[in-house]
Design a protein that fits this description.
Length: about 375
């Protein structure tokens, strides 16, 4: 839907909206649009090993460990929390009428993201099956919806101290749960793709199909618990940026110091609780939030402190309609559109140039569609 808000809400949002946040969200989505293929194409063109190394970073980890591509999803969840922290206040501070509107919007947003996640899962040409048990209900958009919804409820109904206690206890509790609880031979410190406690939960309580019919769904039930913490950590960052709006130096100190601390803690914790995206381990939360905080500091420094804004517009165009373009990667065959418009030009080029030209042409088409929406101030939100 095209988001409509009351004048008071719009004014409140404008006061704290930061181009750096929109640009970073767009930078995050840029790699989803097809830019992850740039490095492989550059390796084909040049044969330089550095491009192959970077191309490897554009693949998910096979199991334990982390790559740059593993950070894209948690960064988006983190930024959804940042946006909450920048614009939202305790629910009791709103008039009763506004409170009801916000509850309705939160529930509607959650349900819509869950639904759109199912659409995305089955939008690759085959369509959703008629049998309910063959539909994959777990999804990236669904996880974003759950994380945002729970973080919003915590922000509305609890104080900072309570939120901090929930954050720490959840990260520790999730680790203890996976490390020491064993059910039917699953868990008890087994962090494998077939023996982790998450596998037992998905096989017994997750309705429908799992991703590629694997024992564990990467967006499964139990791992949702810790993904919420990415959003909650983002709330802390957004709230700090809002409270310290007149003190950019302190904002940078907060973002950089918290980012470094989380990275140190996350990598240290990984020695006993491995960094794992599929399990969404506690160490994975800390490491990805650490990187997210440092990236936010960098974008905030360049865009909102140094005022280098022109280049940021390229990414902000993507970030302002991120859900739309994400859905389009499943619902639209962009490859054929690219071939139809630029195929003749690309095939006329030398063979080693063709992969790079194809990636760039595809990115250009998608960006121009988003730019058309941007110029007309059409921002389709959920």
């Amino acid at each position: 839907m095209i988001e409509k808000t009351s004048d008071s809400v719009v004014q409140e949002t404008k006061k704290v909206r930061l181009l750096s946040v929109d640009a970073l969200r767009g930078f995050d989505m840029f790699w989803i649009l097809g830019a992850e293929g740039l490095f492989a194409a550059l390796f084909t063109l040049t044969g330089w090993g550095i491009w192959q190394t970077l191309a490897d970073q554009m693949e998910h980890s096979t199991w334990h460990g982390i790559t740059a591509y593993d950070c894209i999803f948690p960064l988006f969840i983190f930024l959804s929390g940042v946006s909450l922290g920048l614009t939202v206040k305790p629910i009791k501070e709103y008039p009763i009428v506004v409170q009801k509107q916000k509850y309705r919007h939160a529930i509607k947003r959650l349900l819509l993201l869950l639904f759109l996640g199912v659409v995305y899962n089955h939008g690759w040409g085959t369509g959703a099956p008629f049998a309910f048990d063959e539909i994959r209900y777990a999804s990236v958009l669904g996880r974003i919806g759950v994380a945002w919804f729970v973080a919003a409820m915590l922000l509305w109904h609890t104080g900072i101290r309570t939120q901090a206690i929930i954050l720490v206890s959840t990260l520790l509790g999730y680790w203890l749960l996976l490390a020491f609880v064993s059910i039917d031979g699953y868990g008890g410190g087994n962090y494998s793709a077939t023996g982790a406690l998450n596998v037992w939960f998905d096989q017994h309580f997750l309705p429908g199909a799992r991703y590629r019919n694997k024992p564990l769904d990467p967006e499964g039930l139990l791992s949702n618990i810790c993904s919420i913490m990415n959003a909650l950590i983002g709330v802390f960052a957004g709230r700090a940026m809002k409270q310290l709006a007149a003190k950019p130096r302190k904002i940078l100190i907060y973002l950089v110091s918290s980012g470094v601390i989380m990275l140190v803690l996350g990598f240290a914790w990984s020695t006993v609780f491995p960094i794992n995206k599929n399990l969404w381990s506690s160490s994975f939360v800390l490491v990805t939030c650490g990187y997210s905080s440092l990236l936010l500091a960098l974008f905030y420094f360049l865009i909102d402190v140094l005022k280098w804004r022109r280049w940021a517009t390229f990414f902000a165009v993507i970030g302002m309609n991120s859900i739309v373009i994400y859905l389009s990667t499943s619902l639209i065959t962009w490859y054929y559109t690219t071939k139809s418009l630029f195929g003749g030009f690309i095939t006329a080029a030398p063979l080693v140039w063709q992969p790079l030209l194809m990636v760039c042409a595809g990115l250009l088409i998608k960006w121009l569609v988003l730019y058309w929406l941007y110029l007309r101030k059409i921002f389709i939100k959920v």
